[in-house]
Amino acid sequence: MSVEVEANLKVLQSKINEACAKANRSPNEIKVIAVTKYVSVARAVEAIEAGIEDIGENRLEGFLNKREAINKNVNWHFIGTLQSRKVKEIIENIDLIHSLDRLSLAKEINKRTEEIQPCLIQVNTSEESSKHGLSINEVIGFIKDLEPYEKIRVDGLMTMAPFTDDRDVIRECFQKLHSLRDEIKQLNLPHAPCHFLSMGMSNDYDIAIEEGATHIRVGTSLVGNEND
Ligand SMILES: *Cc1c(COP(=O)(O)O)cnc(C)c1O
């Protein structure tokens, strides 16, 4: 096993502990998803052997490739844009879809799955036009519209912070997602328990944890980037 991934995970865990201490949270509340989109199956396996239990991929090919090759008991997260016509190829055994952002996709998932599918709604908290996801003010209406799709369960919200060095701007995005999550929770919709907040990547997971993240999605600083 490479020492590198193990060492990275140790650093990550100590930074998680630090952020949790600052925010008065327990590290047990934080799920680390290793994002393996830039690395090989072998590197993903190293992360699992170092203790990672959750793997995230953002493209269909990468997801299927890893899931077929990795014969271990891990949770699978789909974190990228999902095309409706590809749903049938991938839908079996996705533990959490982080990128539900339109009714046509919900309809297709509902049609193709046998079981309840846990989903997060992707929210464009930075309002950057290049980013996917619903605007904050569209989310509650969208969730209400999901009610007829009985296999879709909204377990929470996901966002990506903007590309900026301004940590206050990033923090503000995470705070917005958190308060939106609380607002949705209070609606007590049976199909939208909405307890999760998937936010924070290599550069900003510490801020995300301080602002209530339950799932952080860490690629580069954990498993590296083998394309570099
Ligand atoms: C690539 C990716 C990540 C991980 O990014 P890093 O900066 O490498 O940690 C997290 N979330 C999503 C949606 C991604 O596409």
Describe this structure in words.
- The chain is α/β, with parallel strands linked by helices and 228 residues long.
- It has one domain: TIM Barrel (Alpha-Beta Barrel), CATH 3.20.20.
- Helices cover 40% and strands 18% of the residues.
- The chain contains 9 helices and 8 strands.
- An 8-stranded parallel beta sheet has the order 7-6-5-4-3-2-1-8.
- Strand 5, helix 6 and strand 6 form a beta-alpha-beta unit.
- The longest helix is centred in the first third of the chain and has 21 residues.
- The radius of gyration is 17 Å and the shape is globular.
- The two termini are 20 Å apart.
- The model has no long low-confidence stretch (mean pLDDT 96).
- Bound molecules: pyridoxal-5'-phosphate (PLP).
- Pyridoxal-5'-phosphate (PLP) binds next to strand 8.
